[in-house]
TrEMBL record:
InterPro entries: Nod_factor_sulfotransferase (IPR052796), P-loop_NTPase (IPR027417). Gene3D superfamilies: P-loop containing nucleotide triphosphate hydrolases. Pfam families: Sulfotransfer_3. The lineage of its organism: Bacteria, Pseudomonadati, Pseudomonadota, Alphaproteobacteria, Hyphomicrobiales. It comes from Mesorhizobium argentiipisi. This is Sulfotransferase. It comes from the Bacteria.
Length: 260
């Protein structure tokens, strides 16, 4: 009698840009039972050989991600996933709802406590076209200027996205991980993720290739930082401009993440 091997359980990493999703995925893929296949909605992601996949429907794309995913035969998988950044949903308006309907989906929402850090990093990457860093050289990214309108739009987009994720998935199917904790305490952060995904504990090897691209404080990398700080003083985003203060995530009345 032939026994059918069950399909690995699906998961997805959701995040705003520049919140450490590549770094998290690199560590997840060290686990012998877990496979994350990069950015499903990124045309240029080399994990996906089918360059025409984005011309198909949303359901077909998710079937590709979770049922016909790129295979690593040396792994006995119990979890398979991918990652999607918030801007990538814009070109596929119905994709988020289709994702939320996928059976038994586990969602890892990766957040950065200070959304301004995310915007600063995104702007630097766009200017330099350097999205990943693999060496420990001291080449500093360029300082940048940000407009008030750009900051307001990005902060609101982050709030709206995080709240949409919190509304769309049951608390038992959603795990919020913090970029800062991932950097500072990777073992503790991963231990919670393994438990959430229902796989055996597996410690990080400590040999991750990716390096942090910018370690300087915001006031040394944003040329008009003081101007922006004065504008946002007294408002809901003033805390993003308080250098040296350790930010903590806000929670909604249900205990879920409200703002990052």
């Amino acid at each position: 009698m032939t026994q059918t091997v069950p399909s690995p359980g699906p998961f997805v990493i959701l995040a705003m840009p520049r919140t450490g999703t590549h770094y998290l995925e690199e560590m997840l893929n060290e686990h012998p039972q877990v496979l994350s296949n990069g950015e499903l909605l990124n045309t240029y992601d080399t994990n996906w050989l089918d360059k025409d996949r984005l011309t198909g429907g949303d359901r077909a794309l998710l079937e590709l991600a979770y049922l016909r995913y790129p295979n690593q035969t040396h792994k006995k998988l119990t979890r398979v996933g991918c990652k999607i950044n918030e801007p990538q949903f814009h070109d596929r308006p119905g994709f988020f709802a289709e994702l939320a309907r996928w059976p038994d989906l586990k969602v890892i929402l990766l957040v950065r406590r200070n959304t301004l850090e995310s915007l600063r990093s995104l702007t630097q990457a766009r200017q330099t076209r350097q999205w990943l860093k693999f060496s420990s050289d001291n080449d500093a990214a360029p300082s940048i200027k940000l407009t008030v309108a750009c900051c307001e739009a990005y902060f609101k987009a982050a709030d709206d996205f995080h709240n949409r994720v919190a509304r769309s998935f049951a608390s038992t199917d959603l795990h919020v991980a913090e970029y800062e904790t991932l950097l500072r305490e990777p073992s503790a952060c991963l231990a919670k993720i393994w438990e959430f995904l229902g796989v055996a504990a597996f410690g990080p090897s400590g040999t991750a290739n990716l390096k942090r691209q910018e370690a300087r404080p915001l006031d040394q990398t944003i040329e008009n930082f003081e101007e922006l700080r004065r504008h946002f003083a007294g408002g809901p985003y003033a805390r993003f401009f308080e250098i040296g203060r350790r930010l903590t995530p806000r929670r909604s009345g249900k205990g879920r993440l409200a703002h990052s």
